[in-house]
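Standup notes
- HV: blocked on the assembly model, inputs below
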Amino acid sequence: MAKLSLFALATWVGLAAAKDVYLNWNLTWVNAGPDGYERPIIGINGQWPCPQIDVTVGDQLIVDVYNGLGNESTAIHWHGMHQQGSGVMDGAVGVTQCPLPPGSQMQYHFDVNEAGTYWYHSHNAGQFPDGLRGVLVVHDPNPPFHYDEEFTLTLSDWYHQEMPDLLSGPVVAQGKEPFPDSALINDSTNTKIKVLPNKTYLVRIVCIGNWPGHFWVIDGHEMTVVEVDGVYTDPYPAGDKFLRVATGQRMSVLIKTKADTSKNFAIWDTMDVNMLFFFENRTMPENYNPNATAWLVYDEAKPLPEPPVFGEIDFNEDFVDDVTLVPADHKPLLEPVDHQIILETGGALVDGVPRFTVNNKTYIAPKVPSLYTANTVGTEFSSNPDVYGQVNPFILKHNEIVEIVINNHHNNLHPWHLHGHQFQVLQRTPVDGGYYSGLSSNVSATPIRRDTIMVQNHGHTVIRFKADNPGVWMLHCHVEWHVEVGLMATIIEAPETFANTVHAPPKSHYDACAAYPQPVSGNAAGNEGLDLTGLNTTATVGGHGALYTNKKGTKDSTAAQPSQQPSQQPSQAAVPKPSTKPSAPEPQTEAPKPSTKPSAPEPQTEAPKPSTKPSAPEPQTEAPKPSTKPSAPEPQTEAPKPSTKPSAPEPQTEAPKPSTKPSAPEPQTEAPKPSTTPSAPEPQTDSPNYYYEESPTAPNSNGEGYWPAPHTDETTISIDNPDKPHDHHLTIHEETIKSPWANQNTNTGYVIDDGKIYQIKDSDPNVILDEFKD
Ligand SMILES: *[C@@H]1O[C@H](CO)[C@@H](O)[C@H](O)[C@H]1NC(C)=O
Ligand SMILES: *[C@@H]1O[C@H](CO)[C@@H](O)[C@H](O)[C@H]1NC(C)=O
Ligand SMILES: *[C@@H]1O[C@H](CO)[C@@H](O)[C@H](O)[C@H]1NC(C)=O
Ligand SMILES: *[C@@H]1O[C@H](CO)[C@@H](O)[C@H](O)[C@H]1NC(C)=O
Ligand SMILES: *[C@@H]1O[C@H](CO)[C@@H](O)[C@H](O)[C@H]1NC(C)=O
Ligand SMILES: *[C@@H]1O[C@H](CO)[C@@H](O)[C@H](O)[C@H]1NC(C)=O
Ligand SMILES: *[C@@H]1O[C@H](CO)[C@@H](O)[C@H](O)[C@H]1NC(C)=O
Ligand SMILES: *[C@@H]1O[C@H](CO)[C@@H](O)[C@H](O)[C@H]1NC(C)=O
Ligand SMILES: *[C@@H]1O[C@H](CO)[C@@H](O)[C@H](O)[C@H]1NC(C)=O
Ligand SMILES: [Cu+2]
């Protein structure tokens, strides 16, 4: 006797107004050569570059992710999405989920409530620079500006070697970043964008790179800024200044195309060479090319011109300062501040290893993801930073106004990104602008908001936000090289409210933990209370990235071979609304067929929306660049570059300047010194609090029990629908979770009708009708 939720049907029918966008992703290796050098790259459904996701504000996005990589674990983060109430869908490994091991599947589903330009990327062990990143555009039916057409340009650095090799290689071991081999525009060195004359284009610029920021020029076209990081701005014409984006940032500009098609125009992009070389006192290799070119094509018969050439560029004078932008909604400065946090950030030798630190502590991943810890240690402990281990935890109270100061003691730039919020930027110094000593007198009354802010070397920034989004949020430098050496903190926002505010992880997230395996309850070490026995917080050099085999971190893997011919299978399909609402479900005429759990629902097979834009990436026709360095970049031993910027030697060991501010940083979590305690080395084979071993029982329906096993139901029925010419079959698939707190219980699933899939939103299981009998 299968269970059938009539509520599911009712929801499906009633949901006709809200659009669900369902994606079914199979992550696999593909071979591609975006700069002419072919290498294995992580693609989606056999395709790379990864597809742009287009949704409309208000939609629900549902993504089933299957890890078909064979030799790496993974996880997808939705950069900039607030995840209000759905923090468990944030996709950050070690924070909101376990790594998804090869051969496993998990689902992300969340409401998209902010319009603008976002992106998605792996948030697992330095993986995204191997290609697993793409754009997420949230369209707005009523944007505050007019435009006729739009296109997206991604900017990134690119490496010929794979991240696991680079992370375990000699350059990273010295505490340095490997030099990128190329700059890419839209994952190519040969991007051409067809444009029409006399039109206003919205150009969405997304920096999806690993390390350096980028700036770009569209020759002959004025650019007016209208959005940063999903926040509309008052239109800001760049004039004769350059615009730039740091890793993780987005910027949208309006351009007006020419009145005639007599000529094509180059788009010039360059990686920040100060960041790559000069601030770090490293010499640019001979013939190094930090530039990339793309073209605005008015007429394919006309030649593609060379890009403009620029001379000396002053990094303080020649750029639009994003702090001077004004949000279009003119939201006022948040004040007064209830809670100030000061982060002293820099490089240091930790356990003899070059690392980055936040208030003298380098981030070391916990055994239990921090959100799972917050959910399971109980209210007695969830607001105690000590239970989270060495994740640089900061506990916020619900709805307080939080000010974070980031002092950058390092001799390079760091783009800091906060999950779960767009923060106000009150001030940000120029390069060598000094550390925080209070606010300057000219802080804007309507500060710009964004989710990623570039903090200059030997300078600082001050940001504010309201702690109105309970959850566990990473606050980290977005340079993936730096993430991997600990430049991260964890914001634990209103943990005392989670029972009422944050959905519990759905079944597929527990399945990922079970398969990895990783424990899902207890403190950072998987123990009760403050006992952190077994949590090894010794810093190690390098790492193996996301590499995963039976013996994790070794290379003798049995990975699937990269596909040679990317499939043309569309990977996105908006689930259409049922055109005619079936009236209330008719009495079911057929006995529910108990079904074994099916594999992932089929992707929709509708043809992709015809586009006026040349969306397919150009075939690579260039011969592989005779590069002198497909192998690891040399350890840097070169002579000093005469620089006007006094840069301290790395790693930084200077003591942070004592702040004059009364408010002290949060107490640092001191994990016990791993001197004598036995600790679990990778791979984790011990899982003391391992949920599936402890609770193999099915959920009971009487409201008792703690973390019962997730329950899945699948029913196939036939409906006699007056609006359709023939009877049709429905399959209802439901997942139910009962959490420690009743309010976190979830009920999700989908209805398959005529081969189309309609997702069911989370709902209160109390509303679900009792068992339906045939
Ligand atoms: C994922 O793709 C690989 C390579 O094409 C294929 O072998 C595998 O069966 C696919 N897995 C799923 C779950 O679609
Ligand atoms: C563009 O607009 C101008 C001014 O209205 C007009 O003269 C010109 O013909 C237009 N160009 C095209 C290609 O339509
Ligand atoms: C990159 O662009 C800059 C600025 O126009 C130029 O000076 C430099 O020569 C270019 N580098 C290469 C390798 O083309
Ligand atoms: C970091 O360590 C240094 C040297 O031990 C000490 O002077 C400083 O106060 C510490 N800073 C913080 C923020 O804990
Ligand atoms: C505030 O004033 C300082 C010093 O005059 C200046 O450098 C900075 O750019 C100003 N900041 C803003 C946001 O206007
Ligand atoms: C992982 O497997 C793919 C596919 O076989 C391979 O191309 C890639 O080099 C492997 N990665 C590492 C780091 O071994
Ligand atoms: C950039 O690449 C994305 C992903 O492949 C594609 O959807 C988009 O159309 C491309 N844009 C241009 C201007 O070529
Ligand atoms: C730059 O590097 C050289 C060689 O490693 C070293 O001698 C010099 O002191 C460094 N300069 C600065 C300002 O760090
Ligand atoms: C902790 O891990 C490090 C690096 O893997 C290792 O060298 C050290 O022996 C471990 N410490 C303990 C107490 O197991
Ligand atoms: Cu950084």
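- HV (later): unblocked. The longest helix spans residues 6-14. The mean pLDDT is 79.
- Next: hand off to the docking folks.
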